[in-house]
């Protein structure tokens, strides 16, 4: 379960992370969609219990900036050989966004076996991922974009999907209103639902 976070303010980062941890989620993807993203990553870097990643990473310069800020992995909306190369040089895992077999061929050539599917819901949901997985049995897919509490188990039912990416438990309104208890509740429900889906 990878929450995708868009911060309005950097000071939202720590209380949000603590709310997620209380709900059983110990990984977070802070996007670079706002100016608060980078300082938010810096604020979270000292939180040992949380695996902190950066999202919306689209250039090699972004890779350097987020790694310098403390990000432990990077996620991109698309596939960029330059981003993959820079991530490898900086020693951090990169999860490129894919939407087609052509994207997956680029990833395979770079020895990348864990990818994001974006925007998953608009591309056709689990059926789209199942179709892509057939000629790429080595790939593991993380659906992102339009994934919800109602659909997450449909994705997790696929053996090639080890994780999902979503934002419903960290919706911007929850952050703006500092409804940390609601974040914890939604995170707890998501984790419990995933465990049921996986038979854990």
How does this structure look, described?
The chain is α/β, with parallel strands linked by helices. The chain has one domain: TIM Barrel (Alpha-Beta Barrel), CATH 3.20.20. The protein has a six-stranded parallel β-sheet with strand order 5-4-3-2-1-9. It has a three-stranded parallel β-sheet with strand order 6-7-8.
> In terms of per-residue confidence, which ranges show pLDDT below 50 for 5 or more consecutive residues?
none
Radius of gyration: 16 Å
Strand content: 15-25%
Order of helices and strands: EHEHEHEHEEHEHHEHEHH
Overall morphology: globular
Summarize the main sheet: 6 strands, parallel
Can you identify the CATH superfamily?
Aldolase class I
CATH topology term: TIM Barrel
Protein name: 2-dehydro-3-deoxy-phosphogluconate aldolase
Keywords: Carbohydrate metabolism, Lyase
GO molecular function, one term: 2-dehydro-3-deoxy-phosphogluconate aldolase activity
Family: Belongs to the KHG/KDPG aldolase family.
Quick synopsis:
Keywords: Carbohydrate metabolism, Lyase. By secondary structure, the chain is of the alpha/beta class.
List keywords for this structure.
single chain; 200 residues; alpha/beta; TIM Barrel; six-stranded parallel beta sheet; three-stranded parallel beta sheet; 44% helix; globular
Topology:
Layout: E1 2-5, H1 13-22, E2 27-31, H2 37-44, E3 51-55, H3 60-69, E4 73-75, H4 81-90, E5 94-95, E6 97-98, H5 101-109, E7 114-117, H6 120-123, H7 125-133, E8 140-143, H8 152-156, E9 165-166, H9 172-176, H10 180-198
Parallel strand pairs: 1-2, 1-9, 2-3, 3-4, 4-5, 6-7, 7-8
Helix pairs in contact: 1-10, 3-4
């Amino acid at each position: 379960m990878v929450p995708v976070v868009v911060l309005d303010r950097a000071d939202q980062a720590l209380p949000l992370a603590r709310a997620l941890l209380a709900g059983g989620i110990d990984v977070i993807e802070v996007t670079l969609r706002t100016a608060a993203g980078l300082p938010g990553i810096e604020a979270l870097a000292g939180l040992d219990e949380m695996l902190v990643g950066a999202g919306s990473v689209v250039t090699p310069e972004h890779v350097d900036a987020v790694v310098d800020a403390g990000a432990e992995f990077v996620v991109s909306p698309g596939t960029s050989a330059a981003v993959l190369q820079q991530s490898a040089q900086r020693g951090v895992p990169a999860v490129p966004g894919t939407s087609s077999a052509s994207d997956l061929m680029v990833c395979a050539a770079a020895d990348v076996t864990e990818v994001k599917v974006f925007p998953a819901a608009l591309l056709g949901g689990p059926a789209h991922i199942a179709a892509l997985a057939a000629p790429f049995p080595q790939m593991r897919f993380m659906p992102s974009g339009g994934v919800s509490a109602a659909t997450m188990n449909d994705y997790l039912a696929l053996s090639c999907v080890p994780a999902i990416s979503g934002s419903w438990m960290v919706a911007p309104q929850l952050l703006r209103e500092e409804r940390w208890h609601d974040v914890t509740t939604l995170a707890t429900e998501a984790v419990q639902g995933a465990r049921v889906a996986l038979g854990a």
